Amino acid sequence: MRTRLSLYNTGSAMLLQIINMIINLILPRVIALEYGSVANGLVNSIRQFVQYFSVVEGGLAFAAVYALYKPLADKDQDRINRILSGANRLYNYSGLIFSGLVLLGTFVYPVFVHEEGISPLAMGMLVLIIGSQGALEFFAIGKYKALFTADQKSYVISLINAMGVTLNSVIIIVLARLHLDIVLVWLFSMASYIIRTLAYILYARLHYKELNFKAEPDFRALDKRWDSLILQILGAVTVGTPVLVTSFMCGLAESSVYVVYNMVFASVLAILSTFNNGLSAIFGDMLVKNETEVFQRAYRQYEYLYYALMGWAYACAAILIMPFIRVYTRDMTDVNYIRPEIGLLFVLYGLLYNAKTPQGMLVISAGLYKETKYQTLAQAIINIVVSVALAPGLGIAGVLLGSVVSNLYRTIDLVIFIPRVLTRLPVMMTVRRLVRMFALLVLSIWPPLQYLHMMEKSPDGYLGWLLWAIPTGLWCLFVFALGNVIMERRTAQDILLRVRWMFTQRRKA
Question: Taking residues 448-455, what's their average pLDDT?
Fold first, then answer.
């Protein structure tokens, strides 16, 4: 059952991420061509600005999911209702604070960001509109997402979100092509968020008919929310600091450059996210049931596969990033987008950001928020201090170095902490896998970059780039598959046996 749910969650997450990748390729280009690079930087800067306000959720989502694991496993409907009732009230309180901060940001943001051609009124209105979209997460959607995630039904969230982002993008693209004012474009796109909210409510009423959000609230079950607040802050800092520091200290045009490169690497992250989707709840279920041996075996195989997939994805990205940027920005001439050093720094940042994902997922599965809050806070501080210190002299490269240093610190910390506290597996197992991943990455990218000079080449359109991407992907796959099988044959055999068992069970069903 767990394997089947994992397949559902992974498949639907993959669909969502494919849609997101396509949209992330199209939208920034449409906005930059129709409204200019400054407008493209502005919209993304405001999104990250508003994202900071989401920390008022205070880690409620993580705490609610963790609190629901056991009552869902025990089918204790009364406890489920009490936890969700408490979560609903806290989401409403957080939503009011969030809305107040958005209203304040409507007046504050234009004071710090000045660009010719965009009025302070337009900036303020965009903050208000984009903030209103986020408010729906608090008042209407949050409690349902917590329930679906804890119940190992992340596929429901993925499918609804896929519908929502598709509709949102269609509205923005059509109205932008009609040359409608950018503020009105984002105002009309609110319709997609309202429809997405209704889809969450409808599914919950059809499939969870005994839900009662008016039950006596159980706030004690959500006591981990204050400890998980630090994780929430880190999430906002990690995602938001680079764009905001670039916008405030380097300008909105440079922010647009960051957004374009980040778009490509967000697609890489999306591929990796599909592999993780729903696994946090599955590992959480194993932990509450004290299935230690099953948990260790599953995690050992998961980590092995994740690092192999991660290395392959970033090896491909390192080789193909500059040819793609040259094609993508061919008609975007108001800013210089061709910066190989930025592409390589994004690769390094992405590797270190994702290297701690397996361990970070277990922090959520086991609810280890209190035990990790000081290390998480240290990461956030390092990120901000280094980025702000280096941005004036190095620009985007300095901002990325801040992210690299902070993620290096956190990766080392979690690689040591999780085996000692939770998995009881050897630390050197993970260290060897990380060293192997970096070695195979260098082995796979060195020939194309050194002898084929891929960084300097410009393909003939997207089709030409795709014809380069296919052999590149196969070459990197060959290197990583062969290297991982040779260096850790036993785990590879265990994974193959699990896959065979899964298909055998499916045929019997």
Answer: 86
